């Protein structure tokens, strides 16, 4: 059923008033821009970590996540046990989504941790030089300290920080 002419005129008038009111307040931003991890930086973190491990005769798995917890880059070195790939992913996703290194979350008190919270060292978050969180890297297969050092070396090679400035 068509709209009566008077109702159509009222609708158009209300739309015009709303448009004028919106324009008077200035443009409204549809989205706040945030830095995002790109594949090139994720690959640099992964590849530098792999080189670090190879130079030391270590066999590790490396998982690089963006801040939303999406896996961006991954590698599992020959000779690394199958399970370390899952551990690296667990550590990396935890560090990426809560922005805290798993070395710290391992000490967050007694009881069972929340699902997904890594409790073994080797998950390292990373940030822009302005402090914006970009993601996290998880490394597993070496000692805990070597796992963390591997991830931190990759982060530095990408020009990022492993702690907020």
UniProtKB/TrEMBL annotation:
Pfam families hit by this protein: HbpS-like
Record keywords: Signal
InterPro entries: GlcG_carb_metab_protein, PduO/GlcC-like, PduO/GlcC-like_sf
Signal peptide start and end residues: 1-23
Protein name, per record: Heme-binding protein
Lineage: Bacteria, Pseudomonadati, Pseudomonadota, Alphaproteobacteria, Sphingomonadales
């Amino acid at each position: 059923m068509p709209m009566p002419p008077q109702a159509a005129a009222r609708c158009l008038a209300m739309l015009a008033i709303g448009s004028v009111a919106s324009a008077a307040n200035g443009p409204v931003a549809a989205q706040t821009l945030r830095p995002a991890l790109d594949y090139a930086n994720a690959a640099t973190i992964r590849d530098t970590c792999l080189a670090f491990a190879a130079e030391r005769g270590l066999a590790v798995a490396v998982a690089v996540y963006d801040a939303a917890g999406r896996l961006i880059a991954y590698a599992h070195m020959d000779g690394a046990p199958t399970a370390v790939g899952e551990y690296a992913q667990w550590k990396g996703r935890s560090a990426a989504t809560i922005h805290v290194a798993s070395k710290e979350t391992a000490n967050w008190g007694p009881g069972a941790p929340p699902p997904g919270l890594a409790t073994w060292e080797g998950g390292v978050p990373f940030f822009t030089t302005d402090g914006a969180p970009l993601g996290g890297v998880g490394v597993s297969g070496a000692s805990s300290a070597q796992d963390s050092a591997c991830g931190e070396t990759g982060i530095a090679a990408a020009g990022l920080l492993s702690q907020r400035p």
